[in-house]
Design a protein that fits this description.
mainly alpha; 5% strand
């Protein structure tokens, strides 16, 4: 019974991670850190190897990779992605200030909680925080592209997006947006659901073929990068966490609820950028009261989760 309860709790955590992963600007890795499962996730993924599979029977292999944990977590994340993609898109389009205020509260409060995982804020670690902030800032400033998506390109989009998704502070969904693949992937998810419901086999096979290629890129990227992260967390935890905190700080401006886009001439190209605005200078209704309420709710959720994690 206890095992079933633990698996269900892990499934719920997966739902939260999946919800974050489909939000441009929010990282599933951030949510995993808040929930206290980030290290466990990286270690479990890194344990999946051909060597372990060959040397162990299935029961031992499943225990070695923490199979129940991974299955429950990814089942929750996939459930969230497939069911909430419609809702998240609707909220972003119709209630942008409210939804971004909510996630800004989550990310802002998370920084203060996660900084406790750095035991020594020396000059090197402070420098790494600054370095991570700069990297994250410039990544999130890149204007999204809009290109046709082929299968090979879709594979590499999945590969690089999952690396961002498991890094706190860098949004995998925003990387897809930059690469011009976000809307394509979201549409594939919507079409796959509609095809199953309507038994439309004309669109079912092509849609799931593209999703399979994208998913293959995700799996390979996840497995390859998890080994790097595991080594860093095991051997250079303070430095690694400092960089991750920097990545989160650098992403704050991206999910600030009040934004203004502007164009800048660089050589013979016109680049699009955005900058945060004061809500009092926002040209439309700033919805300050609702933004404050959603910010407090987001911050409170992080605080409650952290307290529950400490009790556990």
């Amino acid at each position: 019974m206890n095992s079933i309860s633990n698996n269900f709790i892990t499934y719920i955590k997966g739902l939260a991670i999946g919800c974050a992963d489909i939000m441009p600007g929010v990282s599933g890795g951030t949510i995993a850190l808040i929930l206290g499962i980030y290290k466990n996730l990286i270690d479990s993924i890194d344990s999946i190897s051909i060597r372990n599979f060959k040397s162990l029977n299935f029961t031992d292999f499943w225990a070695k990779i923490n199979g129940n944990f991974l299955l429950s977590l990814f089942a929750g994340a996939l459930s969230s992605i497939f069911t909430l993609s419609f809702i998240i898109n609707y909220l972003i389009e119709n209630y942008p200030i409210a939804i971004w205020s909510f996630f800004f509260g989550i990310l802002f409060n998370s920084i203060f909680i996660i900084k406790r995982q750095v035991s020594d804020f020396n000059y090197l670690n402070l420098g790494l925080i600054f370095f991570g902030s700069i990297i994250s800032f410039f990544i999130t400033q890149i204007a999204p592209k809009s290109d046709d998506i082929g299968l090979i390109y879709l594979f590499f989009c999945g590969f690089f997006a999952i690396i961002a998704m498991i890094l706190p502070g860098i949004s995998g969904a925003y990387i897809l947006l930059i690469l011009g693949a976000y809307q394509t992937v979201v549409n594939l998810i919507k079409t796959s659901i509609k095809s199953l419901v309507n038994f439309n086999f004309d669109t079912l096979i092509p849609t799931y073929s593209k999703l399979f290629v994208f998913g293959l890129g995700v799996l390979i990227g996840l497995r390859a990068f998890s080994s790097v992260l595991k080594w860093l967390l095991d051997n250079e935890n303070n430095k690694t966490m400092s960089v991750l905190i920097g990545l989160m700080i650098g992403a704050l401006h991206k999910i600030w609820p009040w934004q203004e886009f502007f164009e800048l001439n660089i050589g013979d190209k016109v680049m699009k950028f955005f900058r945060p605005l004061s809500p009092f200078n926002y040209p439309k209704d700033p919805q300050i009261l609702s933004a404050i309420i959603l910010f407090i709710i987001g911050s409170s959720i992080v605080w409650i989760l952290d307290k529950q994690k400490e009790k556990k």
